[in-house]
Design brief:
Urease, subunit C, domain 1; 2 domains; binds zinc ion; TIM Barrel; 14 helices; eight-stranded mixed β-sheet; alpha/beta; single chain
Amino acid sequence: MSERLLIAGGLVIDPARGLEAVRDVLVEDGEIRAVAAGLSRRRDLQDAPRFDAKGKWVIPGLVDMHVHLREPGREGDETIATGTRAAARGGVTTVLAMANTEPPTDNPSQLALLRHAAARDAAIEVLFAGAVTVGQKGERLTEFARLRAGGAAALSDDGRPLMNAGLMRRALEHAKDLGLLLIDHCEDLTLSAGACVNEGPEALRKGLRGAPWAAETVQVARDIALAELTGARVHLAHLSSAASVAAVRAAKRRGVPVSAEACPHHFALTDAMVPGYDGDWKMNPPLRAEAERQALLEGLADGTIDAIATDHAPHGCAAKGAGLDLAPFGVIGLETSLSVALTTLYHAKVLTRRKLVERMSAAPARLLGLASKGTLAPGSDADLAVVDPDASWTPEAPFQSKSRNTPFAGRRLKGRVALTLFAGRPVHAL
Ligand SMILES: [Zn+2]
């Protein structure tokens, strides 16, 4: 028997096809079967289970190309099971899990273990990045071809920058030959050493050591130069500075194959908003000044920044309770990313709804080469979210995530995911 569901009467937003209209969506056997007006009146669909989406948006399931699921090694903070349930709650149906686990995902057998765990435990699609260097030590390249053969969806040493430019050049050339996307965490450690917040008046006021925006931008500039030199694609993670955005914009104009992402916390919050010494507001790169945030908004609006990604980074309360100075870097984001984007970008008229959905679904799917994701085209995977763009809510613990380290706890957000389907099945419903 086929498994069917009719999502009736919602505003379908499918940027990949330029579609933005009230339509019914028929899902069958894990695929999008049809998107059309009047399906709900069809006689053969009268008995099909249906979800009333009137007044809501129906969008492709979100693709988050930057998450940390902590498995293996730190299952007390997050697991594939809890991290993917958090994703489902936020309308996210595909994630790319970074390789900085314990041990790191730097070889095919480790990758096989993880893919097995995901097949058993994941609520949604989990793709895995393979490490660029052995042990993420920045010394020796991993075996890219074997990682790709083992199912690595991209390459990244995220959590750490690749400081050695010569090694980065070789990594880019090798990744290009194999058609793998290389994602870089841009940070010059000689500029950021010992820092816990952004360099500037806020850090001075609190007596904390700050990392300057240039710690990011010098490596962004290096990566752009190496992408230009090699013709290899490079994707820049979690941009946080105006100068980085300007560098990417100029590079794209010259035809350099560079892409970039920004995180909700960076485009919604600033260093001046950090309450006291609260460790839940600490991440890397740090929250920066308002002028940097404005540049991120401009970059998102004009497409310089291709995608929105969370950098979902769970940490337990004990670690985060140590305060800004001593707490580890990172915040969770999967359960709030769409709501923060709707509040900060759509309701504040920075992005149209179509562009917002594009940055969170079609664009990351394209960057990762996922043809059947990020769109509601008939035949593609039945991964979708039904969103009430005007529903207000306040994120608060408990979360689906095992961790609760988010600066958005207690903040009123506008826009909420009502239903998430993965492979045609509900994985979240309000
Ligand atoms: Zn990073």
